[in-house]
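[step 3/7] inverse_fold.run input=structure_tokens len=185
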């Protein structure tokens, strides 16, 4: 009973951190990274489609990304979707491929990206705290229903807090690493 509640909480916290990592990967840090395009949806024959499902994405140089659509007719749609996104990159196409030259980040943009990263980290912290709250409520309910003793419930709550603290530290580490990536020249 206790193990089920704690394992479920820890699994949900791990998923929260994985989501944070994926979201931070989509924030560009001055280097070309195909994950930057993950959130961009292209209106492809009336269906919102991720770019990586309709093209090959290559990074031949640290500041250049090449998108080669499988359907050449989709080049204009992909280009339009990239222009509408918040990437701040102007695509260039030659009829065969789309080239994305990743510009150097200026200081103002770097600070903005750090704030965005911190905001995503705060959202993850809130999610982890909510998971902790749910686990503690489940433990208290089990105690109230006489499925757990008071001592077992207290020990399980302490373990829940330790799991939460570990995941909070993981979130802080992920955010610190991303900030370092953004602020490095």
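[step 3/7] decode complete -> sequence:
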């Amino acid at each position: 009973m206790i193990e089920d509640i704690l394992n479920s909480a820890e699994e949900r916290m791990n998923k929260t951190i994985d989501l944070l990592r994926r979201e931070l990967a989509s924030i560009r840090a001055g280097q070309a990274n195909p994950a930057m395009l993950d959130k961009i949806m292209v209106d492809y024959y009336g269906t919102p489609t991720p770019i990586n499902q309709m093209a090959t994405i290559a990074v031949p140089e640290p500041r250049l990304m090449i998108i080669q659509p499988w359907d050449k007719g989709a080049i204009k749609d992909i280009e339009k979707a990239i222009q509408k996104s918040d990437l701040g990159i102007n695509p260039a196409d030659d009829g065969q491929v789309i080239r994305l030259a990743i510009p150097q980040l200026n200081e103002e943009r770097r600070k903005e990206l750090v704030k965005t990263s911190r905001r995503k980290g705060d959202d993850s912290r809130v999610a982890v705290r909510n998971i902790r709250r749910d686990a503690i409520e489940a433990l208290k309910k089990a105690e109230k229903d006489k499925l757990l003793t008071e001592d077992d419930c207290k020990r399980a709550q302490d373990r829940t807090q330790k799991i939460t603290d570990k995941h909070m530290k993981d979130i802080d580490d992920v955010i610190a690493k991303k900030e370092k990536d953004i602020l490095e020249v």
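[step 4/7] annotate
The longest strand covers residues 55-61.
The two ends are 51 Å apart (CA to CA).
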